[in-house]
Structures are given as structure tokens and as C-alpha cells.
Predict the structure.
Amino acid sequence: MSTPQRPMPQRLGRYAVRRRIGAGAFATVWLAYDEQLDSPVAVKVLADNWSEDEHIRRRFVEEGRYLRKVDSPHVVAVYDAGELDDGRPYLVMSYADQGTLADRLEVDGLTTAQALGVVRQVGAGLQALHDRDVVHRDVKPANVLFRGITSREGEPQLRAMVGDLGLGRALDMSSRLTMVAGTPSYVAPEQARGEAPDARADQYSLATLAYLLLTGRAPYQHPSLIEAGHPGPLPEVSTPERQFPPQVEGVLRRGLEPDREGRYDTVSDFVGDLESALSPLVEGAPETSAWIPIDPELTQPGPRPTSAPGGGPEPELPDPAPVPVGRPRRLRQVAIAGAACAVLAGGIAGGYAAQRAGDVPDPTFTDESGMLSVSVPSAWAAVSDRGWMPPNAEGQAEFAALSVGEGSGWATDGTSQGVFVAVLPGDEVPEQSPQHPECDTAGSPVEDLVDGFATTTVVYAGCPGGVTVERVAQVAGNRLLWVQIRSKDHRTATKVLASVTTSGL
């Protein structure tokens, strides 16, 4: 189900909006014009449906702070930041007028000289981040952006820039709080296993990128972070079609060493050795060619605005369409993975887009034990506050549970809205949440601390009635809290999820 698009905003702060460049799970990026500096810019705005999630909001703002720490032509620059009238933060950034590396690879491969040029520039950007004690944690083709420049000889060239630090963390924070995230085929094994990443995790991802650009194929095709945590033997770099000196193979194997202690100390060391190993193949070749843009209408900023848009209220930003951000992890079977489908068959969908803040307060319900409570839209009036018996709790007393939905059968009809909150036994957050094959996309599991508790959250989009949210949290030494929400929109799901409280556990 697609989300209806509201009109494009005329302005974002002082910036005149031209068109939408793209949308992801957490933000929308707009091409805009800085009339004071007479220059096109990219304005990244937090998605409306995540504006009330303080964790996501904090990560969004941190991205701007991390980028501002770095002064490098190979890191996307942040020029300005602010808040819209509705409170959503935005970042004003470099406009990458020539798209991303992922765009380029969909059209054609790179020569060896071009591949080395991209790796060299991306490596320079990563080293600049590391020098400021920032680890990127999500290096991949989609996060390598290109900007057209003119060389000293007057030739058009592309400059590669590292962008999208949505997963970035200061190195000193990573030792205290680890969020398991990243793209499985590019993430370092220790990061996929939930260990605190350091700069060598980015080096591993860059080595994966180098392997892809040089050979035309990724070294691994991990379907999930579980497989990424334990990669198998590295495939041979050389093939009958593409032959490389043994030194190239040695550099890539060291950069892709599963044990980070065996990798290079820095990204610069890796890039330097790769340059030396490839020198017989690239001597005399241009570093980069002037590639033709994939779609000139998308990449060109257009003429300068002749005047500022007229007055009147600023139209609301459209909600970004959900996009796939990775598959749910195939993880070991645990109680809730099997119990979920029995208790709440199918995916979850629903929401209350019509109800706005400031209207009738959301009613709050509490289970009969008084341990669980949740606030929901007023249309969710069917309540079951009795306990339940998880499959792995045979012989024990019932555990607290609370179900609130649009109807008594909301959990099984596949389209009604509702929320199920329950306690179950367990001494660690399970590695698998209930799967929802009826949904179009599955967000990557996000592991973090919420109010001091270890949690895993997965968001499914494109479900029969909207979105599904699964969260499991460790709320006591031997107790877990399971929350499953079916909602028509992200905003409702986020609001309901934030309202869940426990006591006496």
C-alpha cells in the first residue's frame, strides 16, 4: 500500500525547494536552492512519522554533528541545520549532482583505473572521519556520492564523497553502546556480531567495495547479519576474464581478514598498499573518466529561481515511501518466533492517521496484574487484559499480557489495527522476531538500549493494512517484554510503542 503524497513544500527554512531527490526509511532529501549563496543544496528532513521517536531524532541530528567535524572534499559537507515549524530537524548538505556509485554500477562497471580512483577518494573521506574519531559503519555503493568538478586541466571529472552517517558513531561512544546495523554484504564480521566497531570495520567495508569494483562481483552475498558475522573463505580475486597480480589478492585478503587484528591499522595503509599492487595495471591511465549522468533531469539543479515563492502557509512534507533496508535476520529459533504466529497470526496493519495531537487524549489500558499499560487511539476499544502462556513456559503460572485492538479478532483478520504486549521468560533478547512474509519490505533489525534495556526492533512496511512493528526488550534478568503493533502508518505505531510501560518486573 502506497502512502498518499502531500504537496511538495515551497520552502524548507530559507531554502527554495525544487524537487524531491529521494526518500529512505527515516528521511526525505530535497533539491533546494540557497538564494543567498546562489547555489543548489540538498536538504535532508527527518520523516514526519519518526519525528516523535527521540532515538531516531537524536541519530539524525548526530549525523550533522559528525559531518561538521570533518573538513574533507571527500566527505559530504553540512552547511546549515534547523527545524521546521512542526519541529522536525533538517540538514543542509552538499548536492551530489551526479548520483551515487550504486547508480553507476547499475549501468556499467568501472575500469581498473576508475575503481582505484574511487577507492582512493572514499578512503580519503573515511580516513578524515577516523582522524576525527568518527566511524561510519555503513560503507556501501549507495553511500558513495558523486559530484561534478573541473580538473586543473579543465576536464570534467567526478569527485567521490562519503555520505549518509545515519549509523555513524563517535568511537568513544561505540565502546559503551553498540547498535547492530549495516548492510550484510559490506559489514565487518565483528560489527555484525554486535561487537563495538572501530575504524577497522570501515576498512573491511572499503575492502569489500574495492573487491566489487575491481572484479565486478561482491566477495560475499550475505542474506543477513548472522551470515555476515561468520563469513566463509574469500573467493579467488582473479578469474579467467579478469587477472590481477598476486599482490592485489594479498592486499584484498588482508583487508577482508575476518579477525580485525589481522587487517591494516588504518584505511590509508590499505589504500596505499592497494595502489602499489595495482600500479602495473594503471600506470599511464586516467584516474577517472567524465561519465555521462544516468538521468540529466534528475541530476541537474535547473535554473536559478527568479524570485522567492509567495507567502502563505508552507505545505506539509510528504511522507517518504517505505524502501527495503535489508532482510530480517535468519536467527536461532526462540519462543516468541513460534508463539507469535499462533497468538497473532499473520502480519499487523492499521493506524489512526486522522487523530492528531491535541484532540481527544489517547485512552490508556492496563492488564489485570497492573504490570503492563499502553495508550492507543480511541478507535481501539477491544481489550483483553488476561495473562497468557508462552510455549516455552510449560508448568509455570501465566504471564502478564495485554491486547488492545479495533475488534476482538484484530490479531487474526490480517488488516485491523491493534497492539499486543506480553511478558515471557528469557535471560537474553532473542535473535529472531516473528517473520511477516505478507509484508513487502522488512527493515534491518535495530539493536539498542531503550531506557536502559537491551532491545531489538524490526519494522515491516507494505503489509496488507500498513506497517508492522516487532520489539523485544530485556526488562529483568529472566524476563522479556514483547510488543507487536499493527498500524496503518508509522506515526501511530511509533506513538503506541513509546507509550508502553511496565512496572513490578
The first strand starts at residue 11 and ends at 12. The chain has three domains: 11-95, 101-282, 335-502.
